[in-house]
Amino acid sequence: MRYFILFICCGLFSFSQTNEIVFTTISQPKQKDIYPKSYWNVWVNDLPKTEDIIKNENIARRVKIREYFNRFLVYAKMQTNQPEELLSVFNDSFKYAPHYTVYRYVEALPLKGKEYAYMWNMYKSEKPILDSICSRVRSSYDSDLVELVKDFQSKDQKYRKLLSETTLDELKADGSWKKQLNLDRENSKAIKQILDKVGYPGRSKVGFENESAVFLVIQHSNLELMEYGLPFIEEAIKNLDLDTTYYAYLYDRIQLVKGLPQVYGTQYNLDGSIYKLSEPENVNKRRKVYGLYPIKI
Question: Burial of 203 by CB count in 10 Å (0-12 exposed, 13-18 middle, 19+ buried)?
Fold first, then answer.
């Protein structure tokens, strides 16, 4: 509990992120009788793997900060007998990725099932405090902007989502694709105004769960808006306000539209083959910088 009190005093009013990594020292928890040994060993083995991911300087920072919360979940599932250690891992997660942690906390916790009763009996006195922290973060978002970007995303996917069930030719034939292009034009005009007014609406403004909305619209827009939006996306990533992979995807899409070779290997031809690539022998080095997994060329 002493870790958590310190965390509350120092961190409640600050949601800033940092590249410094100070890893919490934790002990291996004792096995709970409810689990067979083989099941418990899976979580024991996963914890150091997660720690290695966080400590590995060669992996993009976006992956590192995301893994803090994964580590918290792994430790929770192993049913630690040291509640202050579980809370200190939550401290780590919130410190380095507050918006992601809040989103995952709300989505994943409370963990379901009677097998987690022990954890909640141990945890219930602290849960109201954590709920309050998460509520405070969520209330810091611009509610009007949240609804606006959700509307952008809804329009962006209105007819495009039908591609999972039908073909583009069929959507063109029944007029659905023309309606989608009209919605895309509406979105593009509005988003340029948003970028000029508030910059890219990333996770600090609209929450982790909504940070991709404007990116998707820009990705599906015309070349003019793609090129206009790219610096805004780059700036948001520098501020740890957006997933690093988005820059690579948008940059490559611009190259594709221009008929130039892509750089990060994110774009594919209609037949499933990878679109032409600049210096393919170095593509995975470039991908690593933006948190993309290696690909085979």
Answer: buried
Do 52 and 111 belong to one domain?
Answer: yes
Among 139, 173, 190, the domain boundary falls at: 139
Q: How many residues does the chain have?
A: 297
Highest mean pLDDT, choosing among 48-52, 165-169, 252-256: 252-256
- In this structure, are residues 198 and 162 in contact, taking their beta carbons and an 8 Å threshold? no
Find the domain containing 111 and state its range: 2-139
One domain for residues 272 and 152:
yes
Nearest residue to 136 via CA among 87, 101, 112: 101
In the block, which residue shows the tokens 């470039």? 286
DSSP conformation class of 29: P
* 164 and 38 within one domain: no
User: For position 289, what pLDDT does the model report?
Assistant: 87
DSSP 8-state secondary structure symbol assigned to residue 31? P
Please check whether residue 269 is in contact with residue 275, taking contact to mean a CB–CB distance below 8 angstroms.
Answer: yes
Res 9: pLDDT: 38
- For residue 295, tell me if it sits in a domain: no
Average pLDDT, the chain: 79
pLDDT in tens, 108-122: 665 566 655 655 665
